[in-house]
Amino acid sequence: MANTMDSPRTAVSNPPVQPMETNLTQRDLIRRSATSELPPPERQLTPVAKLIDVSKCIGCKACQSACVEWNDTNPEVGENVGVYTNPHDLTADMFTLMRFSEWINPETDNLEWLIRKDGCMHCADPGCLKACPSPGAIVQYSNGIVDFIHDNCIGCGYCVKGCPFNIPRISKADHRAYKCTLCSDRVAVGQGPACAKACPTQAIVFGTKEDMKKHAEGRIADLKSRGYANAGLYDPPGVGGTHVMYVLHHNDKPHIYADLPDNPAISAVVQTWKGATKYAGLAVMGLAAAGTLLHGLFGRANRVSKHEEEEAKELVDESVEHVEKREEDA
Amino acid sequence: MSTPASTKHTKLGSEDSIRRGPPVEVVRYGPGKRINHWVTAISLILLLLSGLAMFHPSLFFLTELFGGGQMTRWIHPWIGVVLFISFFILFAQLWKLNIPNRDDVKWASQISDVIGGNEENLPELGKYNAGQKFIFWGMASLIIVLIVTGIMAWEQYFGQLTSIPTQRIALLVHSLAAVAIILIFMLHVYAAIWTRGTIRAMTRGTVTGGWAWRHHRKWLKDMAGRGRIDPTK
């Protein structure tokens, strides 16, 4: 099977007709939560990426529907509060969400309707995985996909704190964390993500990360030629780059797209908590335990002497006599 | 005919009274405080085990004691609530006796005599020494820090209470406070074992007269002086 590609190069083609073995397995892991000694992966899969061209998005939500369909989730029927964003936030049943922002461009005084498909960015340096205390509940494959293994999830919500993009959600039904899987179960058998497949304008495309960067270059050149001088690719280096990237017409200010972080990185607080605190804390507790044990075994105990017992008895006897004498006098 | 000493104190045999013996014994803790103490102690140990499981991956196996990771995550905060309530009942009863005084400064400045076991060089002490007071206030303040930060990190019910950046700080503070309280817990247990004759104060409720004379002479003299002596026991 020398000609078989290790990952799909596009989301638009039809799925392969021959049965295919899942290629995202334990031996393809490059990171595994709460696991220090992970054997190196047996091979390096080609890094993949999803590219979301915000300038081409028409806000139809076909991606959301495809996501719900493929992952078989059941988002609650919501309420219309006068905006198109629906549901109002990501949930444990809605892994991707079109966020609609109305922004007035101060340079042109034009109203721009910005639509960003929110969801997991599949960071090269994932904060969720760093924060996760449960071995193997979050994994990263060599093709860049960051996936939650729900069987190992304990529902603590540390991934929520670790994520610089505010993506994971804990299900109230089964107390496990959910987010976009980049359709790892499709990619593993040669198919692109459901959202990319459903997108009618190909605002969402999928392929190798290299191809997606090249494709973005063409899109950015086009946008620049049409007056968007700051158009660019959002592939934030603070998290080591991402496997979900955006083409933004205003790449100088990502925050206008429904608070997309300008410079995302794993929070220093999380780094301290999961770095120095974890190791130094364990060391200090271990040393204290060993120290007390050694002193307990070899040190001299603090014992009460026979003499002290007698002193106490004398004191008590005296007091009793004193009380009795006072009662007699009275 | 009962003796004057016992008619004066109808509740003799209760806390802070002397049993004349022989041998002389002193009631240090009544049953209420002992039960309270052990509920707190067991909660603290369970919290320590379940918390450490989520603190460091090498200790994740401790989740098996609680029936797996999901159960550990679920039960840890509830045990915390039990400990908080139980500890603060104890706190309400003990805080007055744990207010630091001048003897504590002297005691603490002569810590080498404490560790060396040369208690004859130390001032006579009331019911608690500075070390015990340190443990008391250390526990009390850390438990407040832990319950506050713990609630902020309690995803199931309070995930929306504070912002995510605040929750990150809460978890960092929670783990640092946990390390600190585990160190204080070790000091507490160690001191109770090292100072022989102490543990019975929390099991049987009594200590020997000699123990009280050696470690808390002012407390013993005060009880004797007020005639809190039960000659019948």
From TrEMBL, chain B:
One Pfam family hit: Ni_hydr_CYTB
Any one Gene Ontology cellular component term annotated for this protein: plasma membrane
Keyword annotations of the record: Cell membrane, Electron transport, Heme, Iron, Membrane, Metal-binding, Transmembrane, Transmembrane helix, Transport
Cross-referenced Gene3D superfamilies: Transmembrane di-heme cytochromes, Chain C
Subcellular location: Cell membrane
Domain Cytochrome b561 bacterial/Ni-hydrogenase: 28-205
Top-level taxon: Bacteria
Transmembrane segments: 38-62, 74-92, 134-154, 169-194
Cofactor(s) needed: heme
Gene Ontology molecular functions: electron transfer activity; formate dehydrogenase (NAD+) activity; formate dehydrogenase (quinone) activity; metal ion binding
Gene Ontology biological process: anaerobic respiration; formate oxidation; respiratory electron transport chain
Main localization of the protein described in the UniProt heading: membrane
Membrane topology term: Multi-pass membrane protein
Protein family per UniProt: Belongs to the formate dehydrogenase gamma subunit family.
Protein name: Formate dehydrogenase subunit gamma
Organism name: Endobacterium cereale
